[in-house]
Amino acid sequence: MEQANDELQKIERAYDSPPLWYDIRGFFILTFAYRSTLWAQIALFGGNMGPRHLEGAIGSGTLCGIILAWRRLTGRPVKSEIVGFDYAPSMLAGAIRRFKTTPNIRLMQADVAALDLPDNYFDTANVANAVHCFPDVDGGLRELHRVLKPGGRLAMNVLLFARGIQPFKWIAEKIDTWGMRKGILYTPYQEADIRQRIVDAGFDIEREEVSGNTYNVVARKKS
Ligand SMILES: C[S@@+](CC[C@H](N)C(=O)[O-])C[C@H]1O[C@@H](n2cnc3c(N)ncnc32)[C@H](O)[C@@H]1O
Questions:
Q1: Does ligand 1 lie within 6 Å of residue 111's CB atom?
Q2: Where exactly are the structural domains of the chain?
Q3: Which end of the chain is less congested by CB atoms within 10 angstroms, N or C?
Q4: pLDDT tens for residues 25-81?
Q5: Distance CA 184, CA 14 (A)
Q6: 130 close to ligand 1 (CB < 6 Angstrom)
Q7: How far does the centroid of ligand 1 lie from the alpha carbon of residue 26, in Å?
Q8: For the domain bounded by 2-221, which CATH number is listed?
Q9: Is 54 in the pocket of ligand 1 (CB under 6 A)?
Q10: Residue 179 CA to ligand 1 centre (angstroms)
């Protein structure tokens, strides 16, 4: 318990920087550590937003804001309820500012492994760029499973250990090592390991692919 609290305090400290700096840094991490693109993220997460949607570890809300704008532009606005949570107060403050005029988004501070949210409530949940930041990933997956309705879908991209050709692998390894030292990355995963954890939490894997250094997955809570 004490160790879990220490880990959570580390997250608070690690993300204690202005949301704008977080967004700029995030762009480099996305490109060189994840080897992913904004478009890939819009496609994965923008396709998984049901009437009652949970945005896990929403951060400063920049990505979620872009995805919601993209959905509006493509004639599929999310009109119903969105709940977003994050553990780091500084990140959450950015999201609160960003969405202060968006009436259907409710934001809360929460640890993914202890969500004060009802069982079987959400149609969909997204966890963008964050699973590998959770100290208690199994607890987090169990909670996401609990709050989803039967048949509800969870989309995530999970950072894998750096792979591929040099020098890109080397660059990604350096960024991962720096991220772990700073506390913004808990650990990258092996694909088989994180897949098994998702299944153990009670999900069926509906879609999955490895792209760049990420495992992109849509998992479904059994009906
Ligand atoms: C790399 S950021 C991603 C933020 C956002 N989803 C995005 O894509 O821009 C990771 C986020 O995970 C949050 N986080 C880390 N551990 C958490 C936990 N145990 N519970 C809730 N949020 C957590 C951090 O505070 C941070 O905002």
A1: yes
A2: 2-221
A3: N
A4: 888 898 888 899 999 999 999 999 999 999 999 999 999 999 999 999 999 988 789
A5: 6
A6: yes
A7: 12
A8: 3.40.50.150
A9: no
A10: 13
